[in-house]
Amino acid sequence: MSRYFVKRLLQTIPLMLIISIFVFFFIHMIPGDPAKNIAGVEATVEEVEAIRAEYGLDKPIIVQYLDYMKDLLHGDMGRSLKSNLPVTEMIASRMSYTLKLVFAGILWAPVLGILIGVLCAIYRGKAFDHFRTEFFSSKKSSVVAIDGVSFSLDKGEIVGLVGESGCGKSVTSLSIMQLLKDTPGKVTNGEVIFEGKDLLKASKKEMLDIRGGRISMIFQEPMSSLNPSMRIDKQLIEGIRLHTDLSKEQARERAAKMLSQVGIPDPPRVMKNYPHQLSGGMSQRVMIAMAMSCDPQLLIVDEPTTALDVTIQAQVLNLLHHLQENFDLTYVFISHDLSVVEMISDRIAVMYLGFVVETAPKELLYKTPMHPYTQALLSAVPIPDPGHQQERIILEGDIPSTINLPKGCPFAARCKMCKPECLEQRPATKEVESGHFVSCHLFK
């Protein structure tokens, strides 16, 4: 914490210096002779020169600035070059008006804040948090990959994104991380607020600091995410040194420590290996160690158990859960496996065709699914109980094309409870019970 304040203080000093230089020289660029203004229109040349000498206005401009800063540090703000009155007295004489304005601001700020908050609540899922990513085949033609994606995370929470392949889960994560620069994809609407800052408005340098530092990502395929031509130690050390002030040896020590924490035996030996010399489970653990190496605040986990056998899947999930508890991490956990999401998530968002159709705490979602699509998904999850009878909901029809999205609800063509309004109007997101949000015309 002390290091943070020292850093901010060192950044403030040159900023204040620049402001003082700007103000000083701006005042001296105003047309007119300050000495004549002080002496008056009827003053003689000798009187004007005497005033100029008294106030130091005959000195070089740099010397005048240094004298000005010296007096300012002693609490003397000087005199007005127009009225010849002390600046401190002029400020004091107008203090009552200033206090009135401050008081009015204090009164109006919460009023406007509450009004904006109410509008955000009313129009939730629309302009205020409407997240949209498109892939452009030309300047006028595009495919909407995700639209209307809205969710929030509390510190230490795990939010699961679930849905069938192609529903936009991975595109959502890449949009958050701003990793669509080298693709035809572009975020065309919405905002991604992290620590009070909209990541979509962050500069390239700011995103380089955030990505891999305060926000990390575990990618879907570890074997294709790791560089096959670099040893494991070089890949880990490179990321650590990019986001920290550690030396090469210190970075090596941290890399070995992180490999040990993710359950890799004999880290010094593994660090000398190339990715192809590791198993799928070991490669995934290396990816987790790499993501954790710079102490991120948010970890995006994209299908971490893909292509792993069941026992290795359980080990990876237990490891992620253990790390989350030990380091108080916040996860966005992406998967198409409902049983995996249920095991690790606190809250779940169900996606279909680029839209979030239902969001709820996992207990509510699995006990009382509201959206017809969520009900169909959960009916397909096998329950290891021979005595349990479960009706399987079969979805008929084809998934609509993202090139020509339907006008109304994206799920309408396959929904057995479809109504005429479902085909014409996209449903708004409703909170049907505390923390349980559904986008469906069946709930109004």
Summarize this entry quickly.
It contains 18 helices and 13 strands. By secondary structure, it is of the alpha/beta class. Strand 1 and strand 2 form a beta hairpin.
What does this structure look like?
The chain is of the alpha/beta class. The protein has 18 helices and 13 strands. The protein has an 8-stranded mixed sheet with strand order 7-8-9-3-10-11-13-12, with helices on both faces. A 3-stranded antiparallel sheet has the order 2-1-4, covered by helices on one side. Strand 10 and strand 11 (355-361) form a beta hairpin. Helix 10 (232-243) crosses helix 11, helix 11 packs across helix 13 and helix 13 packs parallel to helix 14 (310-327). 28% of the residues are buried. Mean pLDDT is 82; it is low at 123-128.
